[in-house]
Specification:
The protein has five helices and five strands, in the order E-H-E-H-E-H-E-H-E-H. With about 120 residues, it is an alpha/beta fold. The chain has one domain: Rossmann fold, CATH 3.40.50. Helix 3 links the parallel strand 3 and strand 4. The protein is globular. The mean pLDDT is about 95.
Length: about 120
C-alpha cells in the first residue's frame, strides 16, 4: 500500500483529497504546513507528497526545496489555485524545483487519482 502525505493549509481541500485517496486504497497522512510536514518526514517515510503552493509561513515552493535537500528522495505533486498570482507560472516553477506532476485546484477526484497513479508508476 502506497503512503501519501498531503500538505495544504486549507482544511476542506486536505480532507477531500484524503477521502478520495483513502477510498482508492492509499494510506494517507496530512498536515497543514510545510514545517510540520518536514518533521513528519523525519519520522515517517512516504511514497509521495502532494503539496499546495500558497500557504502561510512556509510556502509550497520553499517546502519543495527543503524536501529536495533531505537524504531520502521523494516524489512530489504540486497543486495550486493560484490565488492572486498566476497559478500556471507557479506550477511551472514547482516543476522546475522537482515536482513530478502538477494540479490546478479545485481538485477533481479523477485528476487527483490520475496524477497520483502516474507519479507512483514513474521511476524514482
Amino acid at each position: 500500500m502506497h503512503r501519501i502525505l498531503i500538505i495544504d493549509d486549507d482544511n476542506i481541500t486536505r480532507s477531500l483529497a484524503r477521502y478520495f485517496l483513502e477510498e482508492a486504497g492509499y494510506q494517507v497522512t496530512d498536515t497543514e504546513s510545510g514545517e510540520l510536514a518536514l518533521r513528519l518526514l523525519e519520522k515517517e517515510p512516504v511514497d509521495l507528497i502532494i503539496t499546495d503552493l500558497l500557504m502561510p509561513a512556509k510556502d509550497g515552493l520553499q517546502t519543495i526545496l527543503e524536501i529536495q535537500r533531505l537524504p531520502q528522495k521523494f516524489k512530489i505533486i504540486a497543486m495550486s489555485s493560484g490565488g492572486p498570482t498566476n497559478s500556471t507560472r507557479l506550477l511551472k516553477v514547482a516543476k522546475s524545483y522537482g515536482a513530478v506532476q502538477t494540479l490546478l485546484k479545485p481538485l477533481s477526484p479523477d485528476e487527483l487519482l490520475d496524477a497520483v497513479a502516474k507519479a507512483l508508476q514513474d521511476g524514482p
